[in-house]
């Protein structure tokens, strides 16, 4: 992310003398409230005055205002803002709302001149409010705004869809049915596409890429083929805006009639509708809303009259600022490309994330396994503790391997299984339906290969294994390193190796995210919601909640941000008895307000002396007469459950990408009729770093690893810990030296300057 450095300044005085108004507009989206909360609290933290614009769901009301579309309506709005001295506007909404806000800003000086002439405001008032700053956050479940990977509300909508798909799957399998699921997305197929990836659907219809001519025959062949392979159900996902190549709508009823008439399959249709907009926001949307809210306030307070209206958005794992109208233009370009039949351009204009999803879907769903085999055997295994999403990664790797012409081998029970020959072929049908299953279907153990290397190397030779996919946590990383070190002694281990991080702890070097961490985070967040709700009647209660993570404080920190915790104790940020005392004091003050409950999270290994029991006893004693305490140790429930849409999608892309990389490496390493891989770049961790999925040599990551505590030495999420403290109303200093600089929208069609 390009950064801009500022001279050191006091962040608590950045907003002095300034006023910020927050409004939500357009369709409601889960996570908007988190964005409003963050904008308000960070605005107040900087010393600014903050105003709500009501009806303008969210806590403050969300509306599509007809008055605002007229100049008279905008004059009224301008008058209201000037009278309150508001020159900073934070707009949370879709592209329509943000375009309207930018038009308002463009007209601002003209509106003020008209108001002065009409005697509604004085010349002095107009001078004080001569410039209007606007920053947008995109709240839209459709994820239809170009320039951002994820809009606020999209992940929560995916949760609602996948909950329904999982429920439908069980009934469909009982009766051998075909289910057609219609999801929202009038102009954007993101929800449909990611849902299809996340549930392993047989077909998806999206507006950006209509099916080829003769799709009816192709679809029927696909469904018949799946049934002939033993599948008991078929799932077809349809975006509400799906069209054919000639621009005519493709409806769920039309597809149902086709399948019923041609194949005679028992077919059912489910239209989800507004269910997708409702419910509690996911952990991802809460954190996204909170991070974007902080970035929006900073963007407003740093803006000058020359700064264009911008949107704060997400690129990979990075908060970025983009010119609002560039994003709006690219969003309009998508619609134009679709209208002109330039569907490849439409996919590219949607952005890298959308394009990657589409390419992965096409590879896994549309390509039949080749008749010619590659004579390559690729083994897949799980290592370490089980986590949700492991099976999705295995399924994706197996299917991609078969598509490449390889023979795929399943290794059961980790390195133990590799050493003891628990290895068998795994087929296309054997991994069907694995995407939504939690835990590890292959079986997994924590044992490392070092002491069994002789047996491991013999079995690699016996089963003629040419490449290895290791899916797991810190043990997978260390096990991979041990295999690399063993290459000096055992030639059999000189094969390409890829490690895919999968652990609730999110502690694998080389990746910002691990498969399984999002599911665990949602489990903790929803549990904290219920725990807090239990205090709604009793009041004056503080909950101490212990989370997993080993020595890594990721879960405690992110769950703290998502659940609105008052503190989160972690190993990476040392704390003393004085810090504990300050936290108790803070809660004693909080109990004097209208919010009479507290939430404290503690990572299981944050401090060997300040245990959960100790902190519980301390808070109980110090809070006597003011609040009482309860403690909860969440335990292994954090490793269980069905994977979230994020983990299913992430695992599917990681599994597919790892096998494509191995296929290329095998070509590089083929010498004199055999595979020989002994260079550092032939054994890598596949990880998400900032904005992209990257392969990093295992050997290169050693320097950034704290092996004693099983964590990376540098962890990106530590920088956002202060946000949690500010939102909990702690008086701390926020580092304002590093904030996102204004970037430009990048697309691959050449229709807009980079």
TrEMBL record:
<feature type="binding site">
    <location>
        <position position="177"/>
    </location>
    <ligand>
        <name>substrate</name>
    </ligand>
</feature>
<dbReference type="GO" id="GO:0005524">
    <property type="term" value="F:ATP binding"/>
</dbReference>
<feature type="binding site">
    <location>
        <position position="268"/>
    </location>
    <ligand>
        <name>substrate</name>
    </ligand>
</feature>
<dbReference type="InterPro" id="IPR009161">
    <property type="entry name" value="6-Pfructokinase_euk"/>
</dbReference>
<feature type="binding site">
    <location>
        <position position="541"/>
    </location>
    <ligand>
        <name>beta-D-fructose 2,6-bisphosphate</name>
    </ligand>
</feature>
<feature type="binding site" description="in other chain">
    <location>
        <begin position="548"/>
        <end position="550"/>
    </location>
    <ligand>
        <name>beta-D-fructose 2,6-bisphosphate</name>
    </ligand>
</feature>
<feature type="domain" description="Phosphofructokinase">
    <location>
        <begin position="377"/>
        <end position="661"/>
    </location>
</feature>
<feature type="binding site">
    <location>
        <position position="27"/>
    </location>
    <ligand>
        <name>ATP</name>
    </ligand>
</feature>
<feature type="binding site" description="in other chain">
    <location>
        <begin position="503"/>
        <end position="507"/>
    </location>
    <ligand>
        <name>beta-D-fructose 2,6-bisphosphate</name>
    </ligand>
</feature>
<feature type="binding site" description="in other chain">
    <location>
        <begin position="184"/>
        <end position="186"/>
    </location>
    <ligand>
        <name>substrate</name>
    </ligand>
</feature>
<keyword id="KW-0597">Phosphoprotein</keyword>
<keyword id="KW-0479">Metal-binding</keyword>
<feature type="binding site" description="in other chain">
    <location>
        <position position="604"/>
    </location>
    <ligand>
        <name>beta-D-fructose 2,6-bisphosphate</name>
    </ligand>
</feature>
<feature type="binding site" description="in other chain">
    <location>
        <position position="710"/>
    </location>
    <ligand>
        <name>beta-D-fructose 2,6-bisphosphate</name>
    </ligand>
</feature>
<feature type="binding site" description="in other chain">
    <location>
        <begin position="636"/>
        <end position="639"/>
    </location>
    <ligand>
        <name>beta-D-fructose 2,6-bisphosphate</name>
    </ligand>
</feature>
<dbReference type="Pfam" id="PF00365">
    <property type="entry name" value="PFK"/>
</dbReference>
<feature type="binding site">
    <location>
        <position position="630"/>
    </location>
    <ligand>
        <name>beta-D-fructose 2,6-bisphosphate</name>
    </ligand>
</feature>
<feature type="binding site" description="in other chain">
    <location>
        <begin position="274"/>
        <end position="277"/>
    </location>
    <ligand>
        <name>substrate</name>
    </ligand>
</feature>
<keyword id="KW-0325">Glycoprotein</keyword>
<comment type="pathway">
    <text>Carbohydrate degradation; glycolysis; D-glyceraldehyde 3-phosphate and glycerone phosphate from D-glucose: step 3/4.</text>
</comment>
<dbReference type="InterPro" id="IPR015912">
    <property type="entry name" value="Phosphofructokinase_CS"/>
</dbReference>
<keyword id="KW-0067">ATP-binding</keyword>
<dbReference type="InterPro" id="IPR035966">
    <property type="entry name" value="PKF_sf"/>
</dbReference>
<keyword id="KW-0021">Allosteric enzyme</keyword>
<keyword id="KW-0460">Magnesium</keyword>
<dbReference type="GO" id="GO:0006002">
    <property type="term" value="P:fructose 6-phosphate metabolic process"/>
</dbReference>
<keyword id="KW-0379">Hydroxylation</keyword>
<keyword id="KW-0324">Glycolysis</keyword>
<comment type="function">
    <text>Catalyzes the phosphorylation of D-fructose 6-phosphate to fructose 1,6-bisphosphate by ATP, the first committing step of glycolysis.</text>
</comment>
<keyword id="KW-0547">Nucleotide-binding</keyword>
<dbReference type="GO" id="GO:0005737">
    <property type="term" value="C:cytoplasm"/>
</dbReference>
<feature type="active site" description="Proton acceptor">
    <location>
        <position position="142"/>
    </location>
</feature>
<feature type="binding site" description="in other chain">
    <location>
        <position position="446"/>
    </location>
    <ligand>
        <name>beta-D-fructose 2,6-bisphosphate</name>
    </ligand>
</feature>
<dbReference type="InterPro" id="IPR000023">
    <property type="entry name" value="Phosphofructokinase_dom"/>
</dbReference>
<dbReference type="InterPro" id="IPR022953">
    <property type="entry name" value="ATP_PFK"/>
</dbReference>
<dbReference type="GO" id="GO:0003872">
    <property type="term" value="F:6-phosphofructokinase activity"/>
</dbReference>
<comment type="similarity">
    <text>Belongs to the phosphofructokinase type A (PFKA) family. ATP-dependent PFK group I subfamily. Eukaryotic two domain clade "E" sub-subfamily.</text>
</comment>
<feature type="binding site" description="in other chain">
    <location>
        <position position="240"/>
    </location>
    <ligand>
        <name>substrate</name>
    </ligand>
</feature>
<feature type="region of interest" description="C-terminal regulatory PFK domain 2">
    <location>
        <begin position="377"/>
        <end position="754"/>
    </location>
</feature>
<keyword id="KW-0808">Transferase</keyword>
<feature type="binding site">
    <location>
        <position position="95"/>
    </location>
    <ligand>
        <name>Mg(2+)</name>
    </ligand>
</feature>
<feature type="domain" description="Phosphofructokinase">
    <location>
        <begin position="53"/>
        <end position="299"/>
    </location>
</feature>
């Amino acid at each position: 992310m390009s950064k801009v450095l500022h001279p050191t300044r006091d962040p608590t005085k950045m907003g002095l003398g300034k006023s910020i108004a927050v409004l939500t507009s357009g369709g409601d989206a889960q996570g908007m409230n988190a964005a409003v909360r963050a904008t308000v609290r960070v605005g107040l933290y900087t010393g600014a005055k903050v105003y709500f614009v009501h009806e303008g769901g969210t806590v403050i009301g969300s509306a599509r205002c007809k008055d605002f579309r007229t100049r008279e309506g905008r004059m009224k709005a301008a008058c209201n803002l000037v009278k309150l001295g508001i020159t900073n506007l934070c707009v949370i909404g879709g592209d329509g709302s943000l375009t309207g806000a930018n038009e308002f800003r463009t007209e601002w000086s003209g509106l003020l001149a008209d108001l002065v002439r009409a005697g509604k405001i004085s010349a002095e008032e107009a001078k004080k409010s001569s410039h209007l700053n606007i920053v947008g956050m995109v709240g839209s479940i459709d994820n239809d705004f170009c320039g951002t990977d994820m809009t606020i509300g999209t992940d929560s909508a995916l949760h609602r869809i996948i909950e329904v798909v999982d429920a439908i799957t069980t009934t469909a399998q009982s009766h051998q049915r075909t289910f057609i699921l219609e999801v929202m997305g009038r102009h954007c197929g993101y929800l449909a596409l990611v849902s299809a990836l996340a549930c392993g659907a047989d077909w998806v219809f999206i507006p950006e890429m209509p099916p080829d001519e003769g799709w009816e025959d192709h679809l029927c062949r696909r469904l018949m083929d799946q049934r002939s392979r033993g599948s008991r159900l078929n799932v077809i996902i349809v975006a509400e805006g799906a069209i054919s190549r000639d621009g005519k709508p493709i409806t769920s009823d039309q597809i149902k009639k086709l399948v019923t008439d041609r194949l005679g399959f028992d077919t059912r249709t489910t239209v989800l509708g507004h269910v997708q907009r409702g419910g509690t926001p996911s952990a991802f949307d809460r954190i996204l809303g909170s991070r974007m809210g902080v970035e929006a306030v900073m963007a407003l307070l740093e803006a000058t009259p020359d700064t264009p209206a911008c949107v704060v958005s997400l690129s990979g794992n990075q908060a970025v600022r983009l010119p609002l109208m560039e994003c709006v233009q690219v969003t309009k370009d998508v619609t134009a490309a679709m209208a002109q039949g330039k569907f490849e351009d439409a996919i590219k204009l949607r952005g890298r994330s959308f394009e990657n999803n589409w390419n992965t879907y096409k590879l896994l769903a549309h390509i039949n396994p080749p008749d010619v085999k590659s004579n390559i055997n690729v083994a897949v295994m799980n290592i370490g503790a089980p986590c949700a999403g492991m099976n999705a990664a295995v399924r994706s790797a197996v299917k991609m391997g078969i598509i490449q012409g390889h023979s795929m081998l399943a290794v059961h029970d980790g390195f133990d299984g590799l050493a003891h020959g628990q290895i068998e072929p795994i087929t296309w049908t054997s991994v069907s339906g694995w995407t939504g299953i939690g835990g590890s279907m292959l079986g997994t153990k924590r044992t490392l290969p070092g002491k069994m290397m002789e047996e491991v190397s013999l079995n690699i030779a016996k089963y003629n294994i040419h490449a290895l996919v290791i899916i797991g946590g810190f043990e997978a990383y260390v096990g991979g390193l041990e295999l690399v070190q063993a290459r000096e002694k055992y030639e059999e281990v000189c094969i390409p190796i890829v490690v895919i991080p999968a652990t609730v702890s999110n502690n694998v070097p080389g990746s910002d995210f691990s498969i399984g961490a999002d599911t665990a985070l949602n489990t903790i967040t929803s549990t904290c919601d219920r725990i807090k709700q239990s205090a709604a009647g009793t009041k004056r209660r503080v909950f101490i909640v212990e989370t997993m993570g080993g020595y890594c404080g990721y879960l405690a920190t992110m769950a703290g941000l998502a659940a609105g915790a008052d503190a989160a104790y972690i190993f990476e940020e040392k704390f003393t008895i004085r810090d504990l005392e300050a936290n108790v004091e803070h809660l004693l003050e909080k109990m004097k307000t209208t919010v009479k409950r507290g939430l404290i999270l503690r990572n299981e290994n944050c401090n060997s002396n300040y245990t959960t029991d100790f902190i519980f006893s301390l808070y109980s004693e110090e809070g006597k007469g003011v609040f009482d305490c309860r403690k909860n140790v969440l335990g292994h429930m954090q490793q269980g459950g069905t994977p979230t849409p994020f983990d299913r999608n992430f695992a599917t892309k990681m599994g597919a990408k790892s096998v494509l990389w191995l296929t290329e490496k095998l070509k590089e390493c083929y010498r004199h009729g055999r595979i020989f891989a002994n260079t550092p770049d032939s054994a890598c961790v596949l990880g998400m770093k900032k904005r992209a999925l990257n392969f990093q040599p295992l050997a290169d990551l050693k320097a950034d690893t704290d092996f004693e505590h099983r964590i990376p030495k540098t962890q990106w999420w530590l920088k956002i810990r202060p946000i949690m403290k500010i939102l909990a109303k702690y008086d701390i200093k926020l580092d304002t030296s590093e904030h996102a600089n204004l970037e430009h929208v990048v697309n691959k069609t050449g229709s807009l300057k980079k």
